[in-house]
Design a protein that fits this description.
- The chain is an alpha+beta fold.
- About 50% of the residues lie in helices and about 10% in strands.
- The protein has helices spanning about 15-20, 30-40, 55-70, 85-95, 95-105, 130-145, 185-200, 220-230, 235-245, 255-280, 285-295, 305-325, and strands at about 45-55, 75, 80, 120-125, 150-155, 165-170.
- The radius of gyration is 24 Å and the shape is globular.
């Protein structure tokens, strides 16, 4: 069977406020609900890919980890519970991962690595959300998204304040289709996860960070991991640049600020236009909420600007301490 990639790049953003503002006629019920949840700051869902195993040993380690910390163990796509001394190896064989590993052993990617056997995906909600509801929402999501196509197993973890569910998904489907996770894939999954939570009575939303006025960005995985090991050239250079500017030696060019500023202006203009449209329909309460939401957006500040600000604050505090001593 010919393999194909799952490509969702054609999908539009979850909350396209520009289209909402420009569209003819009033907002639909679904659009209005999206807007209302966003401006009233309903809890945002989080869906992230936390890696993936490329070896059988790696798959077994991940199975054992999520099963061990799972509140009720590991639940599989066959609606069974996995556990016991040999369950990880049994799952590997049941999913035919040993055959997949053998098939791809000699096939290397551009980086010299074999393709992933499973994807590790985490679904989470903020502290205070019912873990039981989070798990049920993920169970329904997985059934709709992967049943009879990709094998999967999941476990609910409550070892942190945020209830979260780890899901191991077989990268190759039963039909020979490799799951290729793009940014648009994650956007679609967040929307589906939020929809399942709302159906279960748990208010949840899935919008883009820029639409909410957030400017914090995620580091690439390799940079983040190197930073955790205190072995990141990227972070060392960034720290040195911020230190020079904080000391007043130079003014470092920060191209990221210009990009973020343009994005913020674009988003604010869309929110203002949407507010006018909503007010024209007589929905004064929602229009007022949109106004307050837009007004409350924090200043645009890049990671570099945050570093400089923190360094200046530390330096000022140290000067104050020295003056106090003298």
């Amino acid at each position: 069977m010919t393999k194909r990639l799952i490509d969702l790049r054609s999908q539009t953003p979850l909350l396209d406020i520009v289209s909402y503002a420009r569209g003819r006629g009033p907002l639909t019920r679904i659009q209005r609900e999206y807007v209302a949840r966003t401006v009233r700051r309903v809890p945002e869902v989080v869906v992230k890919v936390s890696g993936g195993a490329r070896t059988l040993a790696g798959v077994e380690r991940y199975f054992k980890y999520i099963e061990k910390k799972g509140v009720t163990g590991l639940e599989t796509d066959m609606d069974t519970r996995a556990g016991g001394a040999r369950f990880a190896g049994d799952l590997v064989r049941d999913w035919d991962l040993d055959l997949e590993a053998l098939k791809h052993y000699s096939k290397k990617t551009a980086r010299g690595k074999p393709p992933k056997l499973v994807h590790n995906i985490t679904f989470s909600m903020p502290e205070g959300t019912s873990p039981k509801i989070v798990f049920e929402a993920v169970r329904r999501f997985a059934l709709n998204e992967w049943a009879l196509e990709h094998r999967y197993a999941m476990a609910l973890h409550t070892d942190t304040p945020r209830p979260h569910v780890h899901v191991a998904v077989k990268a190759m489907s039963e039909q020979g289709v490799r799951l290729n996770i793009k940014k648009a894939t994650l956007r679609a999954w967040r929307a589906q996860f939020a929809a399942q939570l709302n159906e279960l009575g748990q208010a949840a939303n899935a919008t883009e960070r820029a639409v909410r006025g957030e400017t914090r960005t995620h580091k690439r995985t390799e940079i983040y991991r190197a930073a955790q090991r205190n072995d990141s050239d990227h972070m060392r250079v960034a720290h040195a640049r911020a230190l020079r500017e904080a000391a007043g030696d130079i003014r470092v060019t920060d191209p990221g600020h210009a990009v973020m500023h343009r994005t913020r202006n674009y988003v604010l203009a869309a929110w203002r236009a949407l507010q006018i449209k909503v007010r024209a329909t007589g929905d004064e309460e929602l229009a007022r909420d949109i106004d307050e939401f837009a007004d409350a957006m924090p200043p645009v500040r890049t990671e570099h600007a945050n570093r400089v600000k923190q360094m200046k604050e530390v330096a000022a505090a140290q000067r104050g301490n020295r003056e106090h001593v003298h």
